[in-house]
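F.,

This is the one I mentioned.
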């Protein structure tokens, strides 16, 4: 039976930045929500609309923007009725104050595979991994297909961890009952983070999956960096987005071999904690020289 009433359409944006090695997402309020706005006839395109309301609502000018997915389940709008959300991914450079930003891995904590400690000094990742493992085992039981799906999504056994499967992992954890889709959903583990408005956390997971896949073949990661940067800063941003560490020498070799994707400047950075480091810049003209180029991830460590 179709849902009563005509649906209304809106734009919703997953806007990502990286600051001090932490990926941030534009999300504020209680519960946190992604920036959104209605379709407007004075915008020549949906992308223009996303850029416009990002500036209007947050003051942030977006660099790379791409469409994600259309979220149209009649039940997803709750009391607001049937809402169709056209999702976009946008990248920018975060500037203080950071009041409108939320650490991305506070909302999707299992996606950060780097070493982190909780406030009590105990490795937070270990506790979370243990709880996820127990939940997956309960959910899968003796079902071979479920066990295979869990292994594929979470890199269990001989399976590799695949950063771009963030959405699949979120949906699997939702099926296990370990995460709450919204504040209206039953509570779940405190280790999996707080829910967002409606299905905005699912939209966020969709955006993270797309971003991690995109950096493999397009140089969008440079939208998250200042005009000049060290190779160490570039690696830090890639690791922050991917949620995993990469081998330093392998990473630099990959970057330097990608058709002069970056080039050195005549300047050095002194605030690196060691000896001065050479500053580089992204060669934007590469985009006109070769359409398919990215920052491939070396083997994680």
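My design for it:
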């Amino acid at each position: 039976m179709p849902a009563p009433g005509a649906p209304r359409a809106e734009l919703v944006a997953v806007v990502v930045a990286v600051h001090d090695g932490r990926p941030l997402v534009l999300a504020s309020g209680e519960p946190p929500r992604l920036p959104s706005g209605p379709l407007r006839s004075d915008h020549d395109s949906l992308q223009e609309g996303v850029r416009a309301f990002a500036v209007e609502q947050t003051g942030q000018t977006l660099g790379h923007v791409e469409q994600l997915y259309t979220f149209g389940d009649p039940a997803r709008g709750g009391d607001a009725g049937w809402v169709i959300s056209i999702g976009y991914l946008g990248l920018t450079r975060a500037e203080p104050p950071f009041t409108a930003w939320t650490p991305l891995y506070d909302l999707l904590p299992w996606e950060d595979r780097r070493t982190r400690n909780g406030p009590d000094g105990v490795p937070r990742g270990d506790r979370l991994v243990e709880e996820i493992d127990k939940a997956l085992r309960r959910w899968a039981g003796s079902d071979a297909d479920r066990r295979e799906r869990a292994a594929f999504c979470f890199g269990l056994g001989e399976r590799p961890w695949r950063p771009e499967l963030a959405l699949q992992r979120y949906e699997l954890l939702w099926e296990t009952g370990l995460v709450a889709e919204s504040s209206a959903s039953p509570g779940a583990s405190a280790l999996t983070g707080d829910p967002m408005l409606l299905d905005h956390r699912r939209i966020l997971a969709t955006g993270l999956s797309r971003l991690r896949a995109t950096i493999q073949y397009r140089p969008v990661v440079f939208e998250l960096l200042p005009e000049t940067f060290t190779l160490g800063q570039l690696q830090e941003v890639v690791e922050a987005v991917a949620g995993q560490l990469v081998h330093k020498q392998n990473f630099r070799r990959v970057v330097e071999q990608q058709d002069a994707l970056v080039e050195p400047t005549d300047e050095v950075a002194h605030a690196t904690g060691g000896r001065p480091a050479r500053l580089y810049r992204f060669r934007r003209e590469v985009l006109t020289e070769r359409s398919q180029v990215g920052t491939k991830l070396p083997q994680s460590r």
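The longest strand covers residues 8-19.

Talk soon.
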